[in-house]
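User: Sequence in, structure out. Go.
Assistant: Echoing your sequence, followed by the C-alpha cells.
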Amino acid sequence: MSDDEEIIPLDQQESEEDVHPTKEESRDAVLFNTDWTVETLFRQIDKKNINLDPKFQRREAWDLARKSKLIESILCSFPIPNVVLAEDRANKGRYIVIDGKQRLFSISSFMRDEFELNGLTIRKDLNGSKFSQLSREDTDVIENQPIRTVIIRNWPTEDYLYSVFYRLNSGSLPLSSQELRKALHGGKLLDYIDDFIQSSQPYKSIFGEKLDRRMRDVELVLRFVAFERFLNTYKGNLKTFLDDTVIFYDTNWNAEIATLDADLSKLNDSLITTKEIFGEDSFKKWNGEKFEPRINRAIFDVISRYFSDSTLRASAIDHKAGIVQRFKTICTENQNFKNAIERTTKTPTATSTRYRIWGEELANELGRRFDDAQRRLV
C-alpha cells in the first residue's frame, strides 16, 4: 500500500460525526498554554512522560527532508505549530499526544543522533550534520527554543479528545485515529495486528511489503476482526464499534487470544482466495470499464468475510470467472449495492445491504444457501 494511495470510500473513515461531546462536557475540560523548550520536551519524551509509542515509530509519516526542515526552522527561530497534549487520567504527569506527534518524533530522533540533516536551504552549512556534530551555539539554540504546548487536563470523555483531534486535522491530510485509540485503550490488540501485518505473506501479496504511514493497514485488519466477531451488534457508529472491539480484546486478552488467532488465520485464508480470484484487482470496485485503482473499505469488508471460510476456497477458485462476473454486474447494475459501497456506507442499513447482496450472489454461484441472519454461506 503506497503512502499516496487513498482507500475509499472516505465515508468509511472514522470522522467527527462519530463523536458526540456535549456542551457541558466541553466546559469541564481545563486547557492551559505553556512554552516548553525543546530540551524540556525531549526530556519528557526520554523519561516516557510523553508517550510516542516506540512500536509505531517505524510508521513515521515524515521523510528526512521534512524532519530536516523542522530542525532548520527551530535553528532559525521560525514559528513552530503548537503541540497538544492530554494528561493521562490514570497517570498524572504523563501525556497522550493529540497533535504534534511527528514533530516530537523528529526532534527526539535528531537529538538522539538518529539522522543527518539534509536539504537545508538556509543553514546549508549544516547539511550532513547530526546533533552531536553541531556547534555549542547551535545546540543551545535548539534546546532553548520554546514550543507552545497546549495541555488538556480534566478532559471529560474520550469523545472530547477525538473531537479535538479531528478539529485539529480538518483541512489537512486526514490522519488515522489509530494512534489515539491505542493511547487511550492500550495496545494488546493493535500491537498484535501490527505483528500480523508484518508476518502475513497473504497480506503483503495484496497490500505490499511497506507499512502504511497513516496506519490504514491496521484499520483494515481491525475492521475485519470487529465485523467477524460483532457484525450483528453494529449500530452505525464506526469509531465506537472499533473502540469497543479494542476494549473487549484488551480486557479479555487471555480468554480471547485463541479466537483472535483463529480469526486472523481466517483472514489469511480469505486473502489467499481473494488474490487467486481477483489478482491485482482485489478489493477494488468495477466501474463498468475497469477496476478502480484504489482499495474500497466497504468491498474489503464483504469479500474478506465470505472468503474467510476455508471450505469455500476450492469451489470459489473453480468458479473464478463466474464470481468475478457477478461482482462486476452488481457494481454496475445493482443500485442498492452501488449505494452501499459508495455513499452513506457506515449506516447499519448500508452495511447489511452490501453483506446481503454479495452473500446472495456468491451463494447462487457456488450452489450454497445464504444465511441472512449470520451473514454466512451454508
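User: And one key feature?
Assistant: Residues 188-377 form one domain.
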